[in-house]
Amino acid sequence: MATNPILHPQARQHAHGEFSHEELALANRNCGTLLETLQHDITPTGAHYLLNHFDVPAVDNAQNWSLTLDGHFTEPVTVSLAELHAMPVTTKTVTLECAGNGRRHVSPRWPSQPWGVEAVGTAQWTGTPLRNLLLHAGIRDTCREIVFHGIDRGVDGGQVHNFARSLTPEDALHEEILLAWKMNGIDLPPQHGYPLRLVVPGWYGMASVKWLSHIEAIDYCFDGYQQTKTYVYRQSPDDSGTPVTHMRVKSLLVPPGIPDWSSRKRLVEPGLVTLQGRAWSGAGVPITRVEVGLDGTWQDATVDQCDNPYHWCNWHFDWQASIGQHLLSCRATDANGHTQPLQAPWDTAGFGNNSVHAVEVWCA
Amino acid sequence: MATNPILHPQARQHAHGEFSHEELALANRNCGTLLETLQHDITPTGAHYLLNHFDVPAVDNAQNWSLTLDGHFTEPVTVSLAELHAMPVTTKTVTLECAGNGRRHVSPRWPSQPWGVEAVGTAQWTGTPLRNLLLHAGIRDTCREIVFHGIDRGVDGGQVHNFARSLTPEDALHEEILLAWKMNGIDLPPQHGYPLRLVVPGWYGMASVKWLSHIEAIDYCFDGYQQTKTYVYRQSPDDSGTPVTHMRVKSLLVPPGIPDWSSRKRLVEPGLVTLQGRAWSGAGVPITRVEVGLDGTWQDATVDQCDNPYHWCNWHFDWQASIGQHLLSCRATDANGHTQPLQAPWDTAGFGNNSVHAVEVWCA
Lengths: 364, 364
Fold this sequence. Notes:
2 copies of one chain form a homodimer. With about 375 residues, the first copy, chain A, is mainly β. Chain A has 2 domains: about 20-240, Oxidoreductase, molybdopterin-binding domain (Sulfite Oxidase, Chain A, domain 2); about 250-364, Immunoglobulin-like (Sandwich). The first copy, chain A, has helices at about 20-30, 80-85, 130-135, 170, 225-230, and strands spanning about 65-70, 75-80, 90-95, 120-130, 145-155, 160-165, 180-185, 185, 195-200, 210-220, 230-235, 240-245, 250-255, 260, 265-270, 270-280, 285-295, 295-300, 300-305, 315-320, 325-335, 355-364. The N and C termini of chain A lie far apart (about 60 Å). The interface between A and B is large, with 73 and 73 residues.
């Protein structure tokens, strides 16, 4: 009998050049945002990027949903959705980005979700602060990490598991973290975590566990697949590495003009073209500078003041387009002095590529 | 000065094997539906497939939107959105599929949107019947076709144009066609045509023009790019071909069990597995039969009666899964006697591939 390739997978190898059927299928399933929608402060519902490792669970009886807090809590508790909805409610505008954004521009390429630059979105999340619930349950001194378990289940690297991620108690108590049940004013769409999810502002998206059913306080370091096998910065596959956490400073340019259907190159007319885009940092500090690269020459753009460092800010720049071929880029700097690199930083699995966005534009 | 590749593109060639960056980018931008959501009669908003040739227009002042009917009408008219909303309103459940669905399984492959099987969705569209407005404007005897113009603009094959498609007066007067402004009870999302679109039940999705602003009755056959250069069945690039119109009979299987992250192969436990899926035909007739293929042996599934032939029906089948590797398929037949083929029908641009859906499942 043939070896089960799901439970006993072959080791993956880095790839070069064109993309496999598997990569293509992942790209089509987990869609990127539509860059033109970056004109909007809030990504239109349904145009936000999606990264679902496994299947979207079908939750038909949300009234039966419960969230259990157990393990090293002084007062373990199980709460219903109705009880959560009755807690203090707040709405936060948060920009989320996938840790693998930019992976397909890291060479050699790790054959996983082959993101370009589109794995980002901004939404208004409504829910209750996680902090209150954790304090109410009482985190014991013996607790080393708090694990957030989703109900979505599948296989990776031969391991069958539910998607789960952990945070230290200190990180989990951050006042910005939400238990959310609405996105842009409506119930969470199924594919965004219905009926309950975590939203961890400032962190790459894997921390924002969807279809959340169980919060477990443990007295050891969580070694789940999504915590230790992936989402770790490594120089090589054998490297013990460092965990992927906060989003690296990043910016995007709304492609100007009109697109060519197949190549997505852009066509503009000569003269004034107002470039616009977004910039963000996961460090919880403001963006202090955005520069636009015009065929290799960098000039400062105007950055709109951003009231909250947990969602992107807007920038714009007036460009005088001249006939011919151009390469437009943008590069952000945050208040910690971190600037985007021009080249993708090496990571063996393609995480954290916050190198500059470049758009090919033809003026005619 | 370099030749502008957008206005003077090189001729595209068929491809084999792995996928180009361009194909990958298109796959990530125009996302497929999530097959597990076929459990739902209505595809969750945001999980419906997307095919936008150009950019999603940003429409900030919808109250200024107007729909103009001109050309060979006896009473040309321009109506506002408010006037349209005041017309008789109806809601229709419609299954739409992209004409290029299945393209990447047609060999050799035409390098365009490389769909697998996921370019389908079912939504509840709310609007007013197009027929009433056309009769009110009065189609002149001199009218040969009615052109539907969107405001989305871009380039394909070197031609700059707005997306536009035509129908004959007879087809345009079909009572099922809607001018729609709501999707699943909410305003059309921007990426689905806000604030106004056409919905043409039974036809592949290109007929359902989004961001609709202008309906033009003409006295000749429309030769727009999206009418004559593409969306035509051709045996070879030089073939004059026949227009792509109604959806060919098709079915899909909800992949059972749990997925492997990277390969999307499925893992099930031994024993009873209830298979479920959807089937539809664009001919406006019911589905009469769905067969499930179990490792090459076909057996009849149970097809739920479908009250309306313009949206998919549900089918199910009880499978006794045994240890090992399996290939599961499904095949639909409609009331006109059309059955899905086992192999992709040849088309040089990969249109109309309604061959059977196959899913690799491992039982352990």
